[in-house]
Structures are given as structure tokens and as C-alpha cells.
Amino acid sequence: MNNSSNSAAKSYAIIGFGKIGRALAKAFARKGIQVAVATTRTPESITSEAAAIGTGIIPATLADAIKADVIFLAVRFESHQDVAKALPNWQGKIIVDVTNAYGVPPEKLRGLPSAQFVAQAFTGGKLVKGFNHLGAAILEQDPAVHGGRRAVFLASDNDNACAEITALAEALGFAPVKLGGLSEGGLLVHAHGNTWGQLIFQDLVKFKS
Questions:
Q1: Which residues of the chain register pLDDT less than 70?
Q2: Is residue 141 left, alpha or beta, with left meaning phi > 0 and alpha meaning psi from -120 to 50?
Q3: What is the set of domains in the chain, with CATH numbers?
């Protein structure tokens, strides 16, 4: 399949190794796709946790992890700017924003959807909002469900980046659903203040028609 071969040519990293970061790592391990994982701690501090998930889950420093082509941002929303400062320019990289800004006042986001606010921090990078609408306990499960595939929602202002993450989501066994741009469909998986987007926590399964 072309999707798998395209995915195999790319390098991947997950920044953040909390519940969501580990859930994403399990998705990669399930399909035998190698991914670097990094936190603010030393790689050695997460070696045993990573090894327990799979041999292709590689603990790395933040400096090494951000060399990847595709970077999953699985940190607390408040920490995304600290990650962004690790590179002066994110040209050529795709950032998958898995953060949720629940509890963050809308005025702090300057009236923007949270993903657009995050995108501004990653100068030159291509941002895709995705994989953030499910809790870790659901996200870490095998996405093959009763003969269907669990849906993940993707939104981006860059069609090429969205196509790449669509292919990756399929390679990981999910059913990607494109929502459009960050200021349109992105609002459906956007949180701010005490409000969740309409698709947050919706655990949907797609079956072949």
C-alpha cells in the first residue's frame, strides 16, 4: 500500500510521555512503526516505560526528537511554547497538535481557535490538529473495533500536511476524518474556557460502506 510506504519513509517523534503520549506510543508499537519519545526529563528516566510498550519506542532528548519529520505535541497546552522554543524555525516539519486548551480563557488565546494559537508558536511548521478528541484510555486501545476502525479527526490549513497525517493515521489502523481548516472544522475539536468542541470525547467507529 502506498500509504504505508509513505509513512515508513518518514521519521516520527512524540513530545510528552504522559497518558496521551503513551497511548500514541502504543498505537505506533502495535503497527511496528518506530517513534522517538521525549520529555523534559532525561531519556534514561523513561527507558523502562518505553521498553514495556515496544522495542520501536525510542527514548530521546528533546533536541534529538525534534529532528523528526513529524512531531506529535502531546504536552500540556501551557507547555507548547516551551517546545516551540527548541527550534528557531520549524520549516519542513509537521506538528500534530494533540493538546487541549480546556480551562484556558478565550482571551488568552486572543480569540483564536487553540490550534491556530499553537501554530503561531511553531514558525515555519505545518500544523495538523488531531488525535486529541479521545481520552487516553480509549486512544490506547486497538482501533480495530467490531470490524470497523476508530475515527480520528484531523484539521489543518495545509492540505499536504493533512494528507500525510491522514496516511499515517490509516497506517496506524485508524479511520481519519478530515474536518477542514483550523478555523472551521478545527473548532469541532477545540476546547477553551469551560467549553469542549462538539466532537471531543465522541468515540466513533467507521465501517466500510
A1: 1-8, 209
A2: beta
A3: 2-200 (3.40.50.720)
